[in-house]
Amino acid sequence: QVQLVESGGGLVEAGGSLRLSCAASGRTFINDAMGWFRQAPGKDRQFVAAVSWSGGQIYYADSVKGRFTISRDNAKNTVYLQMNSLKPEDTAVYYCAVAPGLMTTLATAYRYWGQGTRVTVSS
Question: Is-contact 18 25, C-beta < 8 A?
């Protein structure tokens, strides 16, 4: 059974930083992309960032480019999202996800999802 467990969310002031982590277990994740999505209240789930198995391919949403950095540690089956210069509009529940055998920004391609961690950015 695949499990994804996010951590690192919380309350931060605008301009601050947070680092999210997502530990995955239950299968091997070779050739799987790992990604982060977010959902703000009343809005659809939105792609944030994704990284390929090798780390050689990385995608970011335009809204986070230059502020967020995604990385992964395959030895630990963990993906990270370093979030700097946070803005109130970054407030959302952040989810990590795994897309088996693919590298994509499409949420429908991600088969496994965590429960989410809440990030609140105050102005």
Answer: no
Residue 21 corresponds to which amino acid? S
The per-residue pLDDT string of the chain (123 residues; one tens digit each, 9 = 90 and over) reads 999 999 999 999 999 999 999 999 999 888 999 999 999 999 999 999 999 999 999 999 999 999 999 999 999 999 999 999 999 999 999 999 999 998 999 999 999 999 999 999 999
